[in-house]
Amino acid sequence: GLGVATNSIDVAIEVAPALPGPVAALVGATVSTDEEEAVVDNEWMFLVRVMGHPEVTTRDGRRVTFRKGRSLELVAWLTLNRDRMSRSLARTAMWDVDVSDATFATVVSEMRRALSEAEPSVPRDEISQVTFTDEMHLHGGMVTDVDLLARSASEFVGSHETAEALAAALSLVRALPFSGVSYEWADLDGTTTRIVICVIDAAVRLADWAMANSRLDLVSVALTSGLRVMPGHPELVRLEREMLALSRG
Questions:
Q1: CA 171, CA 163: separation in Å to the nearest integer?
Q2: β-strands 40-41, 30-31: how paired?
Q3: Distance between alpha carbon 223 and the CA centroid of its chain, in Å?
Q4: If you compute the radius of gyration of the chain from its CA atoms, what whole number of angstroms results?
Q5: In the predicted model, is pLDDT for residue 173 greater than 80?
Q6: Cα–Cα distance between 43 and 19 in angstroms, integer?
Q7: pLDDT tens for residues 63-117?
Q8: What are the two backbone dihedrals, phi and then psi, of residue 31, each rounded to the nearest 5 degrees?
Q9: How far apart are CA 224 and CA 236, in angstroms?
Q10: What is the spatial distance between Cα 145 and Cα 77, in angstroms, rounded to a whole number?
Q11: DSSP secondary structure of the chain
């Protein structure tokens, strides 16, 4: 892990573990270039992973290294709050006490540096445009693993032919959201709860369908992901028992 709870991290960009198998299919499905609203389509450049220990990877799987843990936290907050990106809201969410303009500016500057060095094709001033108002901007080519999961779950409701893609999105779940860090805002504003509900809903939908269609491989993916965020969830535990009974034949 990167130990992002500390504020002085300076390591070379490393290659993150490869994304799970079929996630390659999702790599072509991400955000639009509209800065204000992440719409999942074909052009994402950065994946902000919060379903587990927070990290950011480039499209080709390199982990972005932030020298300041607060800069990674700011990326997470901005990508999860695109409808209300402002300096004042970010500062209120991330700090218990009023933080100085200079401190916040340093955090933003380090966020720009880390992302633009990881992906040199994106100029630093396009990562988050400099403004002289309270408003903040974020490059449109950033997507969260939650965006990918929500999109895949929505498509699965419309067509069960996308079951493999939903399994791929669920395989992005590594642990409880924001594991290993203390992002108080995520609990206070309900973000963690919303992500857990998204995972459980998708896992139950996929597991139910896969069980009915004898796709035990997909049942296994769904159960593993769902139980990572809510061990003992009654419906998932029931499905797990059914799967074990079926596999014993």
A1: 12
A2: antiparallel
A3: 19
A4: 19
A5: yes
A6: 17
A7: 999 999 999 999 999 999 998 899 999 999 999 888 899 999 999 999 999 999 9
A8: -95, 160
A9: 9
A10: 13
A11: ---TTSS------EEPPPPPTTHHHHTT-EE-S-TTS--EES---EEEE-SSS-EEEETTSEEP--SSHHHHHHHHHHHH-GGG-BHHHHHHHH-SSPPPHHHHHHHHHHHHHHHHHHSTTS-HHHHS---SSSB----TTEEEHHHHHHHHHHHHHH-GGGHHHHHHHHTT--SSTTTTS--HHHHHTSHHHHHHHHHHHHHHHHHHHHHHTT-HHHHHHHHHHHHHHSTT-HHHHHHHHHHHHHHH-
**What tokens does 75 get?**
């990326």
Copy the structure tokens of residue 148: 């990918």
Only one residue has tokens 């396009």, namely 126
Q: Are 136 and 85 in contact (CB under 8 A)?
A: yes
Structure tokens at 106: 């340093």
In this structure, what token pair is assigned to residue 193?
Answer: 């709860």
